[in-house]
Amino acid sequence: MKKGFFILFTILFVKINAEIRSVWVLPWDIATEESIDEVIATAVSCNQNELLVEVRYRADALFDTSKGAYLYPNPEPKSYILEDASFDPLAYILKKAHQKGLAVQAWVVVFNATPREQSYIQQNYIYNNHKDWITYNFNGSQMNIDRQSGYFIDPGIPEVQEYLLNILGNLAGGYPELDGIHLDYIRYPESDLGFHPVSLARYNEYCQNQEEITYNEWRIMQVTNFVENAYFQLKEINPTLQLTAAVVPDIAEANVDYAQDWQSWLKKGIIDRVYPMAYDVQYAKFKKQLEQIKLLQMKEKIVIGLRAWNGNGNSLAVGNGNSYNVKEIAKKITLTRDLGFAGVSLFSYSGLQKGNAFVQLARLSFPEKKEYPRENISPKLNEITFSEPKYPAEAKLTRLNSEIIMHLKIPKDGFWNWELYKDTLLVSNQRFYQKGENREILNIINPQISANLEPGNYIVHLYQEKSSFQYLIPVELVTPNE
């Protein structure tokens, strides 16, 4: 890559031996102060460092929606899981967990709108107010929930996306101390669902006016667009807030069945981390999945989700006669570390609490504390000084088939502007970039660029607003055979 030749920031990073050790915590385990105290005490004693707490179960809230209403409306009621509707579990857990050095992400169920139980469906906010948003099957009928965990609303409806972005914005605006927002069910329910009439009409219009694509490509586009819009919205509200997601571990299955193209989210830089839910109890299948995921070469952004529950409700502790127990989980943790992933996440806290299983697992796999890698989470935590340019920005321009790709090496997290010049300005963009390697497909930013951009020499102007430090980087557009 060509390096810029102007001044840049130097960031002094604190070198720490860090590993993400995360636990998914279900809403029933944060319903009272006492239960939250127990979650935190267990996480600390078992040397964990991140909690994913489920604060939106099914179109409800285990937090105070009025806190962020000045920015984004959230009409959803307090969850039926709470006995005391005045209690704010998220505020309490943020205060107590941060005091103990635990990071906290707000775990949000996205497109799965209702539970399965009819009694709870009847009082569900979306079911009662936006039943028309429920997705359709290929035959033109609204979905049933015989094979699902509840009704799903259709990502192909613009009002659905706007509504859910408001929910996320409400959370981010109301709780600025959050470390992250963690998306779950950020997908379609299965391959033959997602055929809502509104989505079908939009698809047909797109094919007529834009380009011919398959319907599954259209479904993928809807989910990816939502993730991208959520990412930029949340970074505008709080640039230090992480956006993460629980995802289907098999990449092909995620794309074909669920329209969840999470590898493209990582490549486009519109998600900070993914947590593949590698829940297969068979070690050989688990190992094969991890080796496939490793091929993406983005291990530092991937936290492996591990099955930590017994299907019969029994304890995972050794000695209870179960073939799948904490020893099997420990073996998977060892493999995850050997392959170099960012960490592990255990599903779930309640599954490990029975029979002292969590304590046993901690002795096997977490005998010592590990700090949470906060230098990757919040640039405000790093000391910023002015110095000689030790971390130059870099840029490269390549053509791959019909796509023009801008490769940028950014010196620090933040909102950056870049402009591409020949004799005049050709294309520009501004968004939040993470420190390190980033890619932009110029065809998406300016659809005409591929037709007008010829091989040759160009200049990339890279800078931040309200900063006198800028980069001018010479680049050459080459084609793969050059």
From TrEMBL:
Domain Glycosyl hydrolase-like: 19-305
Presence of keyword RNA-binding: no
UniProt keyword Coiled coil present: no
Pfam families: GHL10 (PF02638)
UniProt keyword terms in alphabetical order: Signal
Name listed for the protein in its UniProt record: Glycosyl hydrolase-like 10 domain-containing protein
